[in-house]
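Continuing the batch. This is chain 6 of the set; chains 1 through 5 are on the previous pages. Same settings as before, nothing changed between runs. Recording input and output for traceability.
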Amino acid sequence: MKFHNFWLLLVASATIFTVAVAYNRPPPRKNLVLSPADDADSTTPQQVHISLVGKNRMRISWITDDHTPATVHYGTSSEKHEYSVTGTVSSYQHLNYTSGQIHDVTIGPLEPNTEYYYRFAPGSTVYSFKTPPAKFPIKFAISDTVQPLWDSFGRLVEPLASRRPWMVTQGNHDSENITANPVTFIAYNARWRMPFEDSGSGSNLYYSFEVAGVHVIMLGSYTDFQPGSNQYRWLVSDLKKVDRNKTPWLVVLIHAPWYNSNYAHQGEIQSVGMMDAMEGLLYKARVDVVLAGHVHAYERFNRVYNHVANSCGPVHITIGDGGNLHGLASNYTEPQPTISAFREASFGHGQFEVVNASYAKWSWHRNQDDESVQADSVSIINLASNPACNKLEI
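Output for chain 6:
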């Protein structure tokens, strides 16, 4: 699942402006593994990241090698941190790996569109973040297991993840999924705790949240999704709670795409089975955008439902091209389906700017030779603003 004022995932369609430029991608580079800083000791905070909790709180998470207090000092001044909150410390074991001490602290209430500064101990490094706005416009950024690599990834993303909320959901590579231990997503659930309780979910693998007029639903492709399952019942309940007068935009995130013209990952139960179970719910709720990953390439579909173009269906976008160990999925079926508006096998990321209650802009940016190049864009009118589609049914 990047940003300017905020970070997350979304997409949409209406008027389409597409730019296609041929590009020959260079060969992959060596894997990047980051170790702790040279001056770090066993109590130095590392892998700092933040995530939204409810309407006006922020969860701050970090790891130390040894046990330290889970206390955050914060305020609106970089020099004075007049508030402090203490949270929890945990760790986990997986086979012969033992994690560091995982700290989770939720701070707030916080004011919207405000810069806050925080630190973990007197004299320690001061971090900062800006809370999302209460109203439009708002921007989201979108992008798509050996246990020590979780630590390396945490260090790699800290400069961004400590300043912008990262709202995530699980993918297949996040599962330990070995016969010796049937419990999966051990590291994911311990390290990336999302605000699932706030939306009435009983699992960190699926939840929802609202920000500045956008209701975002994060579904779990790798937990039970059939009718009657806990996730299915939760989704039905969550959709009923959506008030399109308060949150006119409705966006859903999954990992395994339901629509895909790439040869990679065709026919998987997490795609086909979940689509059979849940697509009707999203269509009746007039979901605007469904964002997926999994396939290591980019593809944007026109509004679609039940495999046919439908002006009241969601826009489906696969943006599984954020980077991976396996390279790009560069083989697409031919001819290109008429419901597929744009597709390209290049690494990149997406930006979703919700301008107002009716209008948004989506753009995909190819990461070309370390430069971000916009290669696809589309303007979107949401379905709640469409008289032909705004009779909501759930």
